[in-house]
Amino acid sequence: MRRYGGPFLLLLIGAAVLRVSLFGDLYLRYVQAGLRPYLIASGAALVLLALTTAALRPAHSHSHTHSHGGSRLAWLLTLPALALLLFPPPALGSYSAEREAARRAAQGVGTFPALPDGDPVTLTVAEYGSRAVYDSGRSLKGRTVRLTGFVTRDDDGTWYVTRLVVSCCAADATTAKAEIRNATAPPTDTWVTVTGTWHPKGTLGSPTAWPPVLDARTVTKIPEPTNPYEKP
């Protein structure tokens, strides 16, 4: 059985990748939707490689295995693959958001394109933050906006609607958030949709304007979306 350790490990990893990418939307917890075909191809390639390796490996290839501790170490590597296959980790949440200092947008102060007609206007949390902190045209003034994200909070009770912004995969996630006022905070990590109006704060383009503030009118609890991340 030991001679199949390597192929078995490849098979587990390939099956785990296929499980999260081919049979549902779990892959969206880790990467952007456009990378799905590459995950499927990688998982299929690993499974095929495992089966081919097992079929071609000669029966005597396990000689002297009793003298090798490396085979036991190799079997330990199956644990992470089994965990991914059986218990996929959840999407990043408030813990990941709190580890990162407040992210500043790369742009300077300037005018932004006009918002669409009609209220409330749906914005990503990152879009709202950019307009609130950097828009010299004050395009948010007098508008009702709708933001969706999960709840994070400070020790003093201040709470935020928060999203993690992912360019490629969860490893490059950064944080966007908006402070919510005039509403009771749901439990941390609860997903909510908040409608409200922009509350001007601080000097435009300065650290005092961060994080942006929203005066809430409604706060509605929602299920976690299939894709929990925003694109930059």
TrEMBL record:
The chain crosses the membrane at residues 39-57, 69-87. NCBIfam families: TIGR03943 family putative permease subunit (TIGR03943). Signal peptide: none annotated. This is TIGR03943 family protein. Keywords: Membrane, Transmembrane, Transmembrane helix. Residues 133-229 form the DUF1980 domain.
